[in-house]
Amino acid sequence: MTTTARISQSAFDGSRLRVILLLDLYEGAQQQFLDAYEHMRNQVASVPGHISDQLCQSIENPSQWLITSEWESAPPFLAWVNSEEHVETVRPMHNCVRDTRSMRYSILRETSPVQPLTPGSAKADTQVEARVGDGVARHALTFTVKPGSESKVAEILAGYKSPQAQVDDTTKLRRTSLFMHGNRVVRAVEVEGDLLAALRHVARQPEVRAVEEAINPYLEQDRDLSDPDSARVFFTRAALPAVHHVVSGRPEPAELRRHALYYPAKRGCGMELARLLAHQDEAAADDPNSPVYGSTVFQRDDIVVRLVDLTGELDTDPVASLGLNGPKKAAELERLLDGAAIGVEGSLETERNINRLLSHADMMPITDRSSTDA
């Protein structure tokens, strides 16, 4: 099997996607759940990129259910699952489901008894490469605070006590990086092991609960963390999934600096902008002279955030730091970027505007914490 060691995560490999949703129902809620599922599947069937889905019930425990769905690729699924439409579509399920777990897989190989293997199909079967990961899962949350409260929120978020990093024998919170851009907060986490277990572990820690309560009065979107439905909706809307992670194959430099860059996309262009940055960072990973050692691209709707680990100062090579090396790449970004939203309008092929974009996109670091033995 062909492997690629540098790209451990990508929504842009072109493979079909299999989504598996495990559900644990409350006793006596089966009929309510079935009614909610009928509503949901009728909605999902019309979503572009959706191929099929199946509803399964455990033969051992009737309270355990499974919904599997197949999608043409990851981008249309991510566009739907991160939308307000999805939030409203799944809301009827909240009262009948005790717990859920979502897993997403790229389909790399497929065997069908009705399709004999031919040289052509065998060649097509090897087009999607397997990725070799580093055992780390990456995720981010983003939300906005009320204008005028930015400095107070930054003070609260910078001053909290770190929660216990070790979740269990196999899972550990490795790193938390927190940035702000205006009144937007982005919190990126790296987890060794089970991401969901780590997120739930962190949410239960008193240090984290205290800081979450402290920033509640400043949030633009109201939430009540004591209300499971309110908390679920808030964190669903705040999710900023990692859609691509790449790291250079060269030895890790001794001193890397982490930066976050904010790229607000024009309406409907978020996924395309994220794909552009992902491909640019793949090229940078192959360049031994690139200051960018590794990057993670996060995207939701028209919000794109690029987390980069690089050598030297961010402004030493603005073009490389922004991910714009190569012919016509600045023009491509200009076509997708909402320049007015970030305060940089006009051609990005001028040195002045490139420098302005780097200055305006650079997010303010609030805290960057690693576990002691990460």
UniProtKB/TrEMBL annotation:
Gene3D superfamilies: 3.30.70.100. It comes from Streptomyces dengpaensis. This is TcmI family type II polyketide cyclase. Pfam families: ABM, SchA_CurD. InterPro entries: ABM_dom, Dimeric_a/b-barrel, SchA_CurD-like. Residues 17-108 form the ABM domain.
